[in-house]
UniProtKB/TrEMBL annotation:
Keywords: Receptor, Signal. The keyword Metal-binding does not apply. CDD domains: PBP2_Bug_TTT (cd07012). It comes from the Bacteria. Residues 1-25 form the signal peptide. Gene3D superfamilies: Bordetella uptake gene, domain 1 (3.40.190.150), Periplasmic binding protein-like II (3.40.190.10). This is Tripartite tricarboxylate transporter family receptor. The keyword Signal applies. InterPro entries: BUG, Bug_dom1. Belongs to the UPF0065 (bug) family. It comes from Pigmentiphaga humi.
């Protein structure tokens, strides 16, 4: 081989060997500089809800820490599928992240055959923001003041009590079916169009029981217009320590989490995910942010990506069993 060709071949070989190292160095530089432009936060529901308000406020505070705007975008439709699908298809570069909830992120996996994403495979967790506890509530006409008294009443009156949900496969439908199975009781499921209609019927005494966020009926509860028997969680609520957890009456009950949290498209570099998690957890330590969450009678979580990922896997396993128990099939 002539010297010129030999030098050319050597240069090409060196360039080939160096390419991965140069790309790695470039990625490291980009990650260290992150963010250099606005970050889009996709939320799969309309504006106006407490989750939307807290998500927007957290995004504003995170922007001050990161030095770039966080653009909050509402992408509602198909019970969260449209916005979640858009986030799943986004580039995994840290410039699109997703604020989501248990209902939008996990429950749809068991309701739709044509779901255009897998929540565990197409996303990487950032942090869980808050636990949104829900409680077993009954009308004042129901002669029970504790979970055990309610279970005894249901066993004496099989099939005579109705319970409401916001639709087949909704979180309160699945929790209701879990409760029935764990307690060995029978109740009639009545689906409604929304939580507002359920509240009206419960207060009027035309509905016997439901499972809703306690913050949505806090005033009525404190006024004695409804009774809250238990939180559907493994532990008591820190703001309501006098109300038992459902597992105290039913140790075999396996609740799933009802939360709001941030995730990113799968493949987002780990250093970027870690930076976002650290930023959001710093925001969650700000007193007025915590106060906003406390106002809803929710609980601040603030977790590592690893802890949030483990919780998601556990919730999926519990939900798989719960949907099978409820007989709800994807359509």
């Amino acid at each position: 081989m002539r010297p010129t060709l030999r030098r050319l071949a050597c240069a090409l070989a060196c360039a080939t060997l160096a390419a991965p190292f140069l790309a790695h160095a470039q990625n490291q530089t980009q990650t260290q500089a992150y963010p250099t432009r606005p970050i889009h936060v996709v939320f799969p529901y309309p504006s106006g809800s407490p989750i939307d308000a807290i998500g927007r406020l957290m995004s504003e505070r995170a922007a001050k820490i990161l030095g770039q705007p966080l653009v909050f975008e509402n992408k509602p439709g198909a019970n969260g599928i449209i916005g979640t699908g858009q986030a799943a298809r986004a580039a995994a570069d840290g410039y699109t992240i997703h604020l989501t909830t248990t209902s939008a992120f996990l429950l749809n996996s068991f309701l739709r055959k044509d779901l255009p994403y897998d929540p565990l495979k197409n996303f990487t967790p950032i942090t869980a923001v808050a636990d949104i506890p829900v409680a077993l509530m009954v009308s004042t006409k129901v002669p029970a003041n504790t979970p055990r008294e309610f279970i005894d009443y249901l066993r004496r009156n099989p099939g005579k009590t109705n319970y409401a949900s916001v639709g087949n496969g909704s979180f309160n439908h699945i929790l209701g079916e879990q409760f029935k199975a764990a307690a060995g009781v029978d109740m009639m499921h009545v689906p409604y169009q929304g939580a507002g209609q359920i509240a009206i019927e419960l207060l009027a005494g035309r509905l016997d029981t439901t499972i809703l966020s306690v913050g949505s009926l806090l005033g009525q509860w404190k006024a004695g217009q409804i009774k809250v028997l238990a939180f559907m969680s493994p532990t008591r609520h820190p703001l309501h320590p006098d109300v038992p957890a459902i597992t105290e009456a039913l140790p075999n009950f396996r609740p799933f989490g009802n939360w709001m949290g941030f995730v990113a498209p799968n493949g987002t570099p780990a250093p970027i995910v870690a930076k976002l998690a650290q930023t959001f957890n710093t925001v969650l330590q700000q007193p007025d942010i915590r106060a906003k969450i406390d106002e809803q009678h929710w609980s601040v979580i603030g977790s590592t990506p690893e802890a949030f990922g483990a919780a998601l896997k556990n919730d999926m396993a519990v939900l798989r069993d719960a949907f099978e128990m409820a007989g709800v099939k994807p359509e």
